[in-house]
């Protein structure tokens, strides 16, 4: 049984994205394998300062940070492949929140004291950032570990709070390697500004980034399932040689490929489309990635048989990751409902002309 389940090739002319993707693939293969995930799970501490330092030293954390603050100043679209790889490895770090959304928001206020103080720290790998995007994020990812919280409200207000200004209450999370916390700021923090366009873009970036992570994690479930049914024998034959198993794996492969393409395109649109189009692409990609993740979860469990349900086997690390990501920054149902409402509104507007 042969299925092509490698990361989709990045366009050859997109050197920045290619380099970041290859760096992440090599680094995480060596330092974020199953043994690393198990070790962090046993410690009860998802964040690993040593791994974060490696990501920083490789220039991955600082990729989007402006050059004047110690980063490479790359475009947001350059991290799409990187996010996909992070998802494939179920990397237990707040990379999306810190190095992508956090950097985007801070860079939108370049003259603020908060930006000039924290962007160099992020670039150096010395700070983790939490992001709260109103109703999209009732809980903050890695909230107990963050050094800075960016609080973005629907009316466009952006405030920053340091860890000393926060009351943090960890909440039980299905995915212990993607911990969540309820956070209540003390005081008013530091006002960065009132900029609805910044908040809207941050939400779009978060949704598109989560779609990439989700597609990557679903890809890992597909890869592991194909590997298992290839080596598992029944009635003297590999399980993967049975037609029903082939069809299940092939159907999943199609969904994962489509989810990956949509997620990568959603990240690309952040720099190539108008804000409304980018938002629609992000919402659609995350919703479809959620469907693919659901299919990946069911197929992986079924095709692994009883072993897939056990704590001792590694499959549950990815099963829980896709479930957590599917619920983050808007569920599939929520995002589709928003898209449907917008479509109906546009249809009514066109009919009224």
Strand order within the widest beta sheet: 1-3-4-7
Radius of gyration over all CA atoms, rounded: 20 Å
Main β sheet profile: 4 strands, mixed
Distance from N terminus to C terminus (CA atoms, Å) equals 56 Å
Name the poorly predicted regions.
1-13
Tell me the structural class: alpha+beta
Number of helices: 11
SSE sequence, one letter per element: HHHHHHEEEEEEEHEEHHHH
**What is the strand tally?**
9
Mean pLDDT: 91
Q: What coarse outline follows from CA principal-axis ratios?
A: globular
Strand content: 5-15%
Estimated helix fraction: 55-70%
Could you please describe the fold and organization of this structure?
The chain has 353 residues and is of the alpha+beta class. Helix content is 56%, strand content 11%. The protein has eleven helices and nine strands. The chain has helices at 15-31, 34-43, 49-57, 80-88, 95-107, 113-123, 196-231, 243-272, 275-304, 315-326, 332-352; strands at residues 129-132, 140-141, 148-152, 157-162, 166-171, 180-185, 190-194, 233-234, 237-238. A four-stranded mixed beta sheet has the order 1-3-4-7, with helices on one face. A hairpin with a 2-residue loop joins strand 8 (233-234) and strand 9. The protein is globular, with a radius of gyration of 20 Å. The N and C termini lie far apart (56 Å). Mean pLDDT is 91; it is low at 1-13.
């Amino acid at each position: 049984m042969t299925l092509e389940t490698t990361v989709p090739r990045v366009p050859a002319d997109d050197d920045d994205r290619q380099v970041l993707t290859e760096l992440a693939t090599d680094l995480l293969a060596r330092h974020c394998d199953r043994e690393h995930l198990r070790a962090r799970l046993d410690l009860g501490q998802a964040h690993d300062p040593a791994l974060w330092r490696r990501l920083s030293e490789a220039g991955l954390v600082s990729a989007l940070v402006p050059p004047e603050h110690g980063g490479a100043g790359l475009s947001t679209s350059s991290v799409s492949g990187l996010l996909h790889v992070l998802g494939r490895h179920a990397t237990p770090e707040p990379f999306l929140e810190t190095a992508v959304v956090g950097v985007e928001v801070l860079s939108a206020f370049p003259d603020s004291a908060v930006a000039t103080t924290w962007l160099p720290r992020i670039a150096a790998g010395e700070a983790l950032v939490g992001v709260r995007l109103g109703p999209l994020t009732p809980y903050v990812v890695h909230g107990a570990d963050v050094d800075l919280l960016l609080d973005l409200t629907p009316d466009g207000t952006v405030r920053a709070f340091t860890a000393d200004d926060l009351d943090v209450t960890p909440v039980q999370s299905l995915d212990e390697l993607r911990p969540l916390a309820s956070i209540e700021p003390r005081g008013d923090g530091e006002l960065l500004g009132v900029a609805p366009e910044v908040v809207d873009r941050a939400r779009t970036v978060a949704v598109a980034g989560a779609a990439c992570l989700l597609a990557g994690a679903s890809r890992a479930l597909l890869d592991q399932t194909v590997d298992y049914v290839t080596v598992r024998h029944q009635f003297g034959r590999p399980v993967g040689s049975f037609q029903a198993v082939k069809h299940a794996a092939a159907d999943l492969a199609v969904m994962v490929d489509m989810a990956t393409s949509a997620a990568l395109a959603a990240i690309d649109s952040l720099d190539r489309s108008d804000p409304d189009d980018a938002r629609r692409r992000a919402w659609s990609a995350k919703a479809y990635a959620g469907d693919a993740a659901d299919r990946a979860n069911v197929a992986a469990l079924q095709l692994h048989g009883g072993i897939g349900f056990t704590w001792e086997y590694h499959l549950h690390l990815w099963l829980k990751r896709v479930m957590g990501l599917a619920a983050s920054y808007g569920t599939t149902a929520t995002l589709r409902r928003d898209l449907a409402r917008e479509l109906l509104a546009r249809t009514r507007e066109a009919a009224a002309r």
